[in-house]
Amino acid sequence: MKALYNILKIYLFPILLLIFLLGAGSALFANDWGKTGHRIVGEIAERQLTPEVKEIVYDILDGESLSSVSTWADEMRSNPEWRPFDKWHYVNLPLDVEYPDAEVADENVVTIIQRAVLILKSPSADKEMKKFYLKYLVHLVGDVHQPMHVGRYEDYGGSKIKLKFKGRKGSDTYTNLHVLWDTNLIDDFKMSFTEWSNHLENKYGRKKVDQSNVIEWTFESHWWARDIYANTKEGDNLSYDYVYKYQPVLEKRLYYAGVRLGNLINEIFS
What we know:
By secondary structure, this protein is an all-alpha fold. Helices cover 57% and strands 3% of the residues.
């Protein structure tokens, strides 16, 4: 019986938890940019790296690219032992209170990004610790640029706000506000992450991106979260006009995240 339990613990329990997270549990644990979104951020970031820094990064990541490790932090959440790290992916804020003045958990997307930078700069941190925090840094810089990751606690960053996105009349297929910004808006364009990265570089590459810092990135996402909440209501059937209105916001949040991540990694390892 003990052997059977161990097998179930290793193989079945994580699958059941993943089903829970994707279904009923989606309201409890906010997702973030979907796989494509995170890979866009990782790809754009890697294109910013100097040759010297890229060599250091590849050594830490055992040859993996930033785009390939960008989804690792989400993939590990299917394991129950990683549940304590769920709160690292977001910071819930009231719409009328900015980050420094809000009561938030000690560990959140802002504080973990700050911790990751310190550890990656530390000469005493070993390779495994640096690999762990570099993977998280790649992921979390993407997360903090997703406006619904700085959304309200009471609706779990929009996860409780049910919507239709380009739904046909009579359709009962719903998404929610968080998933809309994680995945639906990105996937609607039917481009791969490399196509997205090329598109964003062609469109925004000649414009200077203010590097600022993680607190400022949080301010930006919080500002857009307020705007999105004001213009997206429970039960809305969103269509092309919504895409037209928010496509520039979506694109800039993805592009800025990638450029800032690349610049930050250059600064850490230079």
